[in-house]
Specification:
This protein has 257 residues and is mainly alpha-helical. Helix content is 65%, strand content 0%. The structure holds zinc ion.
Length: 257
């Protein structure tokens, strides 16, 4: 829907914002401020200069090592930056109108840190979920006000799809929790964070898509657990984070269906 320059600008914006997401992923679980102190090396604490902070380029130029202490810098940093840029460009090719573009770009900025933090710490911070709530509401409003122009999140059947999506997601989750309780005698099949996330995504993309997202996430998480058990990366009692699979499935279903 746009020209090449537009995509280049979006990619660069994605890299820069991805660099900020790295800060969020690092600091939010530790309950540190996102603004202070300025970016510093995680091992030696040396303040990073602007040349050290160019997305992807600094990391590649320094070959993944801190300029000051030589300690390894996680590959996660450039990966998150590239992922944000890639999802930004992909989003622009899919969004139906400019409001949907804004909503879905903002959504990317929430879902990437949720996936990364859940993957590392097995939690989905309420702070991020609560800030995502107005975005879900905005998507719901957009689907009701201008359904004919919304192509990503709307599946074309009735103005109350978003509400139905949230209700469907919570209903299914209730059933899963009930099933888990009877089968395992415990109700921790899914964390509260996963449940809140799915309800928000249900409001974003409607009932039909959220049910497919959930199905796809269960299949992916199941397959990944089997692989991790077989390769002995995880034991039978180990937790796996469900959030990253929900988010991966969300993008697979919403962008390709
Ligand atoms: Zn260092």
């Amino acid at each position: 829907m746009q020209n090449v320059l537009f995509y280049v600008i979006l990619a660069v914006l994605g890299l820069v914002l991805g660099s900020f997401l790295n800060v969020v992923i690092c600091r939010l679980p530790r309950k540190e401020s996102l603004a202070f102190p300025a970016s510093h090396c995680a091992s030696c604490g040396h303040k990073l200069s602007p040349v050290d902070l160019i997305p992807v380029i600094s990391w590649s130029f320094l070959r993944g090592k801190c300029r000051y202490c030589g300690e390894k810098i996680s590959l996660r940093y450039p990966l998150i930056e590239l992922l944000t840029a890639a999802l930004f460009v992909l989003t622009a090719t899919r969004a139906g109108n400019r409001w949907e573009l804004v909503i879905s770009l903002v959504t990317v900025l929430f879902l990437i840190p949720i996936a990364a933090i859940d993957f590392q710490h097995y939690i989905i911070p309420n702070k991020i979920l609560l800030t995502l709530l107005p975005v879900a509401v905005a998507s719901a409003v957009l689907q009701i006000v201008s359904p004919e122009q919304v192509s990503l999140f709307y599946d074309g059947a009735g103005a109350f799809r978003p509400l139905l999506g949230a209700v469907a997601a919570s209903g299914i989750l209730f059933l899963i929790a009930l099933l888990g309780y009877y089968l395992n005698g415990r109700d921790e099949v899914m964390g509260m964070g996963d449940i809140k996330l799915l309800v928000l995504l249900g409001a974003l993309c409607g009932a039909k898509k959220i049910l497919l997202v959930l199905l796809c996430a269960v299949l992916l998480a199941g397959a990944a657990s089997i692989v991790m058990l077989v390769t002995r990366k995880k034991g039978r009692k180990d937790k796996i984070a469900f959030g990253p699979y929900i988010i991966l499935s969300f993008y697979v279903i919403v962008y390709w269906l």
